[in-house]
Amino acid sequence: xxxxxxxxxxxxxxxxxxxxxxxxxxxxxxxxxxxxxxxxxxxxxxxxxxxxxxxxxxxxxxxxxxxxxxxxxxxxxxxxxxxxxxxxxxxxxxxxxxxxxxxxxxxxxxxxxxxxxxxxxxxxxxxxxxxxxxxxxxxxxxxxxxxxxxxxxxxxxxxxxxxxxxxxxxxxxxxxxxxxxxxxxxxxxxxxxxxxxxxxxxxxxxxxxxxxxxxxxxxxxxxxxxxxxxxxxxxxxxxxxxxxxxxxxxxxxxxxxxxxxxxxxxxxxxxxxxxxxxxxxxxxxxxxxxxxxxx
Amino acid sequence: xxxxxxxxxxxxxxxxxxxxxxxxxxxxxxxxxxxxxxxxxxxxxxxxxxxxxxxxxxxxxxxxxxxxxxxxxxxxxxxxxxxxxxxxxxxxxxxxxxxxxxxxxxxxxxxxxxxxxxxxxxxxxxxxxxxxxxxxxxxxxxxxxxxxxxxxxxxxxxxxxxxxxxxxxxxxxxxxxxxxxxxxxxxxxxxxxxxxxxxxxxxxxxxxxxxxxxxxxxxxxxxxxxxxxxxxxxxxxxxxxxxxxxxxxxxxxxxxxxxxxxxxxxxxxxxxxxxxxxxxxxxxxxxxxxxxxxxxxxxxxxxxxxxxxxxxxxxxxxxxxx
Lengths: 295, 322
Prior knowledge:
heterodimer; A: 295 residues; mainly alpha; MetI-like fold; 74% helix; globular; disordered N terminus; B: 322 residues; alpha/beta; eight-stranded mixed sheet; 29% helix; 26% strand
């Protein structure tokens, strides 16, 4: 670092070059571009979906039209309540994207905070937090989320809560490790010798330096949270049938597997595509942000 | 030498780091990093603490700054015992005693501009007035300019970075500055500039320095008195002049013989020590230097050597001069 940045007047162009190189890395990988296109597509749907189709479609029960196969009028057919599956899938983007983004965001914030305090303070606080994390870690994630949302009852909020409860632990662990490594660096000692408080040292110095890898973890997690959320809804722990979350749609279509396969396959493929998109994009962002993984 | 002249006094300072092991993390032993550090530092002077790696010299600096708590012995600052300070008193003490670390790159937060780093320190200590103006003034004191305040540490050269670290230390108006190998990571040409800066600051503002180093050229250039440490014990202390002219302890002699003589054709006789310092997890009961001493005598293997004053203000811990 010292040698490349000796001449400070050139650092501007160096940074620019670095940025150009990052963009190059991001766009040169075709799979990553594909992933970003998918993400962009579903994000657009989530934002403007209710403008494209009637937002009241989930309530639009019409038994005369039930289980119609795909046609020009209903591109993805209709479900057992006679609702247009095409419109439901478009409206569902908002639910699935918001739950996965929110779960990752809240879990990351909670995990980062707990992990940072745990790693920096150490001692009994560390012991307490890490044992809680260990307990939660001992259960398979999906099973624990099932148990929690079964106890809490069936709703969108409870689905969100149970996923956060399962997901924050990995952030806490990872963050703790980062902070433990960062804490031993000389600048932390220096800020102590300058008489800065522990609180300030942790939040102004250690945290910003340790939080970077968390961003990578978070982008890579969005896809898997989406899969888990859909999975929980599929087994009936998601929101009510009138909220067109994709997992719920698959769940409602299951009894008609042989009569109307489009009820399962269309939302299923949608879930697969969306989480694939997020995973591919996450991989790309990791490659750019973490120079150690560059080939 | 009256007591009111003394800025810092160490009396038999000890720092042992516990070694934990086993299932219950019991203390199974100690690393005896510092076992006896005893010396005074007068106000406005520079005392050099020299010794090889592992001699405990840096640990002494950390304990003075209270980044590590002493295991034994006492530290007096301006006549007041400081080893039990807590909370506000400790903060007030730390603002008077500043530390400059060896590696300026590592001792600054890589994500903070100098401006933020310096102002943060001043704000944390509730320094009144226009902190920005003060920051600019301090930058000029160390030979940098206002423009450098907007740089990140990695955007500075090695010498500028060390100046920036010194500036950050000066921002609290300290009285006493611990310099832990301040020039070790710098180019030789820059070393001289930084040392000159430190000397000038001392002349202008009357700072007291404790210089921790293994570089004897630096010692001769800047310090008025020198303490030599070996494996946690001070072995010889005197004025720098006298030490360079008539050192008495065999270890000091060996150290001095390793300094190149800047004179063509000068005859130089190196004393090359055999072996390495003894295991720091065993507490020394004899002279810690006995195993490597070229002038070892039978008594060295029996008893700890006594402390002797050879001339005024020249002390040595050795059987030779007894």
